């Protein structure tokens, strides 16, 4: 969901505790599912005009509620610093912001799963003439159709339908489809090349999102995916297995 | 087990709390085992003339006991609505009902596991003359024999033996075998094609169940399986691996 | 460890609660590790002249402490029945007894893991002249060497060194090696064919154990393994992967 | 981090309870992740001049806090014995010490994971002229580049930057790079052959560490890895899969 007006103080206190705990709980779940092992992966939740962000470079299954950053969505000013002073904000924050601004996302997950990395290497295809040529600098896409799990994903991400009112924030989500992806639809996810530093991904990811407004996520090759959810992870895992036995990912023939 | 007469009120209160909690606990276990990741999968339990059903389209590992629907088995009238008013009944309900009506099922699990989807694509064979030709519109079957885990499955499902007394509900389970499947038996599960909406699966699944009264489950291609249990999931996983190394699924030769 | 003299009453009470809980806890762990999914797998613990046995045909992750059977090691007389009267003793009991009598086992685990079943089908070799021909009716063996995990296994099982004093119970464990298996040693596990009923496995398993006194376990093809532990499960998993990429299991060359 | 001066008594009491609990908690996590199944794997933490070490040959997911050994880093004198008198110190201790002395490690993990063993057999290459020939007796290396997960690893291990002040303890870490490994860097990990007893690994591992001062870990073929962390385990898993589909591990071309 998009940013809401600031709620009264008591609600903030209650919501604050809730969303801090939720960030910790979901990070632990990301760890267990393999999306955030080591110190990789991360997530944020936007609620009540406050952005709750997991700290950077720490084991995601061990975050304390008091160590979740609370920052302003615009400018990332720290509203409430973490209890542990040495912690730093996730380097993914500018990338999370793209999903918030361009797609109206209320929560963004970044996954480092083996499935996402393997799919990015073995289950992608080059962009060609039939795609209208290379757009937004994207030379490869992940593409899959005819799987029930597609129905757990939304065109442009879960909150894209709300993105129209965010157009002043730079989003062009209004140009794409909204609502749930269907069983017979073809999901296309742009794949961008990785860079040594996450901040260097921002312009490429923004271009990819603008060029592929329907995509609920952007894959970063040999790195992971921004805009992950469990349905997408399922599809990455399945696609890797399907390619491993030589099956086509689109068409539903087999 | 089949529907029982309505118990006295006190028992209902106790049983109600128990079965609500059990739905939540089993849904969490389905999530952990990979059968209900994302918002996929689901289950229901029939007890004391009440059907306990997981809500639709929510993460199955996070269902609150108060959010389990209680509906009437016939007509799905909501007896007790969920605490969260925005929740909706599982779209699987008409499919769960087929298992209740035709097989006397007391609980039905729907799995979206990678194993079930992979097995449906890579470990099935076309129906031929030796099968008596195409029956119930089923053109493919999953077939396996000579595995100890078969003994955890029952002809027509665990409760099929009770299905005789349900014949007025439209079931023809009486035509099939009952009891545990044996080590040397050949399990045959019909595979039907998926459709954009779950309601469109009803007639095909009913026809498949009638044509294959011995089958404890029906697979839906590129979607999952209705009538899943852990023994069946094990067989899907194993069958996919066996086919991956070129082994036959029937005969027990290797 | 082998059977000990009956301890004083207070110790029995304390130990009883402990070993009942331990059976439940270890069964849950077997479930989590994949060794006892569905209603498969099982285990028993021999302590203080009492055999603590998981009930049969129930989900192993859900056993209540009060539902663990306590039986006499000889004759399986039920000393304390389970709280739930409808439960039945594990059909594996006569097979567990072989390990107790012939190998002095103090605990026996039966695993149904995918790894054990796959290894039994894809990582075994026929018995030949170099093995001294077919002994005890065993026509295939699982064989592996040069892996550190071997050091977690013992010749004839963990308690085989105590088996000498059990010879009046029919064991001939005295004929084999004892102590930990070494890194450079070759583990050989006999593989017997499965039968429709577990009781039909007894004579074949007894013959295999007598013919292979050094083996800490017996594999049952397309079924699982008796005498499992996590080190052995690791080796089954690894062996299946090694064979999957064409590696030899013995010699340590690669 | 390196050894610190002995802290005041009260701090020791608090820290002692904390680090004992942490060893148990991390060992359980190693078990769950597959790095310490059976009785394999292990770990130690160096804090306040005291070395907290998991006991040897016991299931790592079941260690009691009172059973963690506290020993002196030099000489391994037992400062506080475990509550269970029969427990013995990890045979890995001399190998853990190498990482403490040569790399300033504040904690060392030894993993027995399937991924580490498979990578050591299938994702290594022989050392050649381009490597400057065989150094420290190391004839094979694991080598990988262009993966985001590399950024969770440090040249010479996390604490190598502190190793300069440890040179009187025999370390030559000063000769290598320090800081985080980059996305485009090539990680090279020496692989040594396994031996029947862990004590026999000491000289080979010391030589490998001296010859490869940049390496954050040493792999032991058919055994596991010393200096493991979850990022490294991820790379072993991924590398095994990449080699399984014929991909190069270095260069980032695919």
From TrEMBL, chains A, B, C, D:
Domain of life per record: Eukaryota
Listed Gene3D superfamilies: Class II aldolase/adducin N-terminal domain
InterPro entries listed in its UniProt record: Aldolase_II/adducin_N, Aldolase_II/adducin_N_sf
Entry GO MF terms: methylthioribulose 1-phosphate dehydratase activity
Pfam family, one: Aldolase_II
The Class II aldolase/adducin N-terminal domain, residue ranges: 21-240
Gene Ontology process terms (BP): L-methionine salvage from methylthioadenosine
Cellular component terms (Gene Ontology): cytoplasm
Signal peptide: none
Stated name of the protein: Class II aldolase/adducin N-terminal domain-containing protein
Species this protein is from: Porphyra umbilicalis (Purple laver)
């Amino acid at each position: 969901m998009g940013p809401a007006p600031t709620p009264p103080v008591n609600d903030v206190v209650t919501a604050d505790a809730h969303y801090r705990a939720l960030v910790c709980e979901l990070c632990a779940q990301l760890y267990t599912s393999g999306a955030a092992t080591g110190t990789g992966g991360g997530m944020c939740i936007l609620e009540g005009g406050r952005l709750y962000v997991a700290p950077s470079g720490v084991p995601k299954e061990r975050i304390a509620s008091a160590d979740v950053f609370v920052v302003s969505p615009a400018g990332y000013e720290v509203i409430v610093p973490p209890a542990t002073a040495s912690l730093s904000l996730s380097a993914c924050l500018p990338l999370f912001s793209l999903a918030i601004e361009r797609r109206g996302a209320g929560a963004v997950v970044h996954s480092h799963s083996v499935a996402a990395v393997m799919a990015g290497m073995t289950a992608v295809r080059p962009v060609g003439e039939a795609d209208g040529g290379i757009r937004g600098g994207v030379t490869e896409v992940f593409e899959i159709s005819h799987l029930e799990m597609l129905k757990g994903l939304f065109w442009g991400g879960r909150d894209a339908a709300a993105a129209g009112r965010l157009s002043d924030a730079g989003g062009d989500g209004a140009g794409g489809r909204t609502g749930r992806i269907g069983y017979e639809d073809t999901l296309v996810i742009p794949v961008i090349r990785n860079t040594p530093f996450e901040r260097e991904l921002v312009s490429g990811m923004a271009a990819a999102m603008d060029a592929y407004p329907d995509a609920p996520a952007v894959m970063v090759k040999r790195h992971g995916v921004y805009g992950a959810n469990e349905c997408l992870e399922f599809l990455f895992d399945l696609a890797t297995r399907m390619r491993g036995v030589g099956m086509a990912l689109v068409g539903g023939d087999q």
